[in-house]
# Entry
Amino acid sequence: MATKPPLIQVLPPLILGGAGFSHQLTSNPNPLRTREVLKRAFELGLRAIDTSAYYEPSEELIGAALAHREMATYKRHEYFLMTKVGRISATKSDYSPAWIRHSVHRSLQRLRTTYLDVVFCHDIEFVSEENVLEAIGVLLEMVAVGKIRYVGISGYPIGLLARVARRARQLYGRPIDVIQTWAQLTLQNNRLEREGLQLFKDAGVQCVCSSSPLASGLLRDEGVPVGTLGDWHPAPEGLRQAARQASQYVKSLGESLARLSLRYAIRRAQYSSTTEFSVATIIGGTSLTEVDENIATALQVLRREEGIWQWNSKGDSELGETGSNEQLEEDALISNGVKLIMGEWRNYSFVQEPEPQTGGLFVPTKL
# Structure
């Protein structure tokens, strides 16, 4: 088996999230729309997809789309597939070794591939740390036989993610490859940048995936998405009202809260990235219009070279392909206005950090 490069050398700065093809975020996940979205995303240079077995029926839809004749020009080694194990439903997780192995093999079948680039332990806050550490060991065994290339953990509580990463490094003699957390590098909550990245570096982690740059749909004109499973979003009404006010304010200035928020998140991720440490942003895309708009927005911050997405070497102050200095200055002013409107809801956290070893459900709190 050929030696694989460190993940930091191959993880792109922009990744398409697969949760948009699930019942959680849409009322009608279907094969045709999924194929249209993936085809358009690939045409525009996105070659990495993040999904989960929990995002029913995302894996099946993505696998069918990638196997369709319209996508035949894209070979497997030309794109990244990332999925997750452990989370089964809103109220159930299974981190037993038997289930982890079953879940990986099922994902391979659903995604119609012989290997997975990254597999995350999903929402580790809902089980004990010991369960997560055991599951990481199972995934590392599957790395050794070529079913998986890289191993990560995902969840919301930054302290828990950092602690598990430290313990995994001590237990297995190597750092985990990547950590994914959500809605904490946004205009509403930037705790990932303020605290999390250094904690992850201290645990030896070189790659971070920051998902939900719009705080799972909170930071957009339409408000939180409601799919087949109903309104699952953890934002309380006060925060939702603040987001609506922020949207109206941004709209009055001729801009979109979603575009502003996405540029902010990608810029901060880029600013935090170096040759030794990278922060990728996972963006949404449930329709051709959304994919086109999100990628056009990303191009105001990032660059593409020969079709490959690249971080800018000068970080926060460098412009993307279609960016401008005027836009940088305007974004800073409008963003400050949004933060003022957020008021007490600025840096509000959806969950409270758990006590070590306990796992379980959490109570919303302000950080």
